[in-house]
Amino acid sequence: MLSSLLLFHLGSPSPLCCNIGVATRGSTAVPTASWVTVPAASCWVTIVVSNSISAVTAPSCLVVVVSPIAVVAIASWIAVVVVVSQIDLVVEVEGRCLLVPSSASATIRRLVDPEDGVDLREQSEGKSWSGFSDEATNGAVYQDHMCTSGSGAIGGSNDTTGGVLTSPPNKSYAEFILVSLRCGMLASILATLYCYLMKPTRKKHVYLVDFACYKPHNPACMCTKEHFLKLIKSTGKFRDESLDFLRKILERSGIGEKTYIPECIMKFPEYISLDEAKGETESVMIGAIDELMLKTKVKKEEIGIIVTNCSLFNSIPSLSSMVVNHYKLSHNVLTYNLSGMGCSAGLISVDLAKQLLQVRPNCYALVFSTENLSSKVYFGNNRSMLVSNCLFRVGGAAILLSNRSSDSHRSKYYLKHIVRTHNGSQDQYYNSILEKEDEDGVSIGIALSKNIMNSAGKTLKANISTLGKDVLPLIEQVKFLANLVARNFLKIRGIKAYTPNFMLAFEHFCIHTGGKAVQEEMQKVLKLSDWHMEPSRMTLYRYGNTSSSSVWYELAYCEAKGRVKKGHRIWQIAFGSGFKCNSAVWCALQTIDPVKEKNPWTDEIHEFPVNVTN
């Protein structure tokens, strides 16, 4: 009745401690290497031998997941027990133990028992005892106190001049049984310890092979701030006070004179359409991915995972399907498309790709992050919605991740930590960034609330509190804990909250280019130097806010400057609607040579940094 009771599914060789989970009807995630289906409705127990995580489809039953190394250890111990159980007598001859099976033990006992037979201890002096003959069906034949060697004994010597039985067998037998049991238990304990100690390393490293940022080649897409204001005014849909507000925002934004906007916006409003929006995203996508494939020399057939993200534009089919169609990828490629997650979606995509790489061995994951401006231009006069028109610019990034150990020598970085914080359960955070119709009901835009900086600050605090314990030196953690105890438990007045020195944990900071005010607040909270803030400020100045891809433009800036050395740690941090704050920590596997690098900064890096304090 227990059909399908035992399912052996051997996965990768890495060890995993035993896990037990209860599978309900339908699909339940358990550590298996691939889909395992239990066909029997009457199955009570399912034992799955595996190492990785997927799913088991089973009726209501208990699923016991055991690693292959545990199975081997248990099987070895059982084998020892079975062998020992067949041994009924052990005799010692000149320091060698002879293991006698139960079928031959009666004859041997009669030979060595003075009451039933010949006492070998008294009569075997000068005689040799070398084993047992096959004669008498696995028994033992004693002829003139001499025996020929055969298969009736286990471990006996084949020398016909063997030794003399010198000691009683009971003591040796007891000692052998004890040693056997100890060896079996020791093997089980060592196997268990091995599984436990190797558990942290069962997760494979996720390598960042390389990345590419999009830079438009059409000079017609480059737009100065003054020209942008003229385009806005030419629509005739904005009041004079709205135009003055936009001018002030641009002057204080930290954006330079060489940012890029979509070609259709240069001709709007009559040229804004769905086709133009698709064309904008497709040009960014193909430009970034083509450059990445050229840099990494990876064949398209090797890509097994695709994750794309774009918050404002959601086409049907999705952007991930657009990638599959353009590059004619395999039918079994895993595709995911994220939308509506704001400027932090790029790091969310990396986290999703990382988790998928943990369960899909020897695989490449392609991550593409961008934002679409053509589809969400706001043509109203609500000030909270006009800000997004000023800050966002064209941009995108393609990132190639790998879990192949063979890629470690050529990859630039590996992922150390990724921390995601979501405060959407509280309305004040949830409403900080919201897409809605304006009060006139004539246009849809992205509204930024007045408390957005407060939401960002508190979400950042929660994020770094989680990240800090993994990256900060011990002395900084002790200082932070002491300050926390003094303020919250001892109620000592006049003590300000202690901000750890994150410059001791990271060499480079890639902070989201949300605007000049966001950058200044981040520098103040984290107590960073101007040198550490330079990549973020220069990216905002040269490329504007490219949303989820901005942190990659900043990392490209660090590489173009020749600042990234082997072993350096990079902290990418981004904010997004919801309200979310996400962090990714990378460790450099090699020193990046700027001469060999090709990225959006290569041709003009000598012009930076520039003064953007005014």
Task: Describe this entry's structure for a reader.
This protein has 614 residues and is an alpha/beta fold. The protein folds into three domains: 6-66, no CATH class; 90-178, no CATH class; 207-607, Thiolase/Chalcone synthase (Peroxisomal Thiolase, Chain A, domain 1, 3-Layer(aba) Sandwich), CATH 3.40.47.10. It has 17 helices and 22 strands. The radius of gyration is 36 Å and the shape is globular.
Topology, pairings included?
Layout: E1 6-8, E2 19-23, E3 26-30, E4 36-37, E5 45-49, E6 54-58, E7 61-66, H1 68-86, E8 87-93, E9 96-101, H2 102-112, H3 120-123, H4 135-138, H5 169-198, E10 207-213, E11 222-223, H6 225-234, H7 240-252, E12 259-260, H8 274-296, E13 303-309, H9 319-327, E14 334-338, H10 345-357, E15 364-370, H11 383-391, E16 396-402, E17 413-422, H12 427-430, E18 433-437, E19 444-448, H13 452-471, H14 474-488, E20 508-511, H15 516-526, H16 530-543, H17 550-560, E21 569-576, E22 580-588
Parallel strand pairs: 1-5, 4-6, 5-7, 13-14, 13-15, 20-21
Antiparallel strand pairs: 2-7, 3-6, 8-9, 10-16, 10-17, 11-12, 15-16, 17-22, 18-19, 21-22
The helix-and-strand class reads alpha/beta
* Average pLDDT reading: 78
How many β strands by DSSP?
Answer: 22
The portion of residues forming beta strands comes to 15-25%
Helix content: 25-40%
Give the strand order, joined by hyphens, for the main sheet. Answer: 14-13-15-16-10-17-22-21-20
Q: How many domains would you count in the coordinates?
A: 3
CATH topology of the largest domain: Peroxisomal Thiolase, Chain A, domain 1
CATH class wording of the largest domain: Alpha Beta
Outline: globular
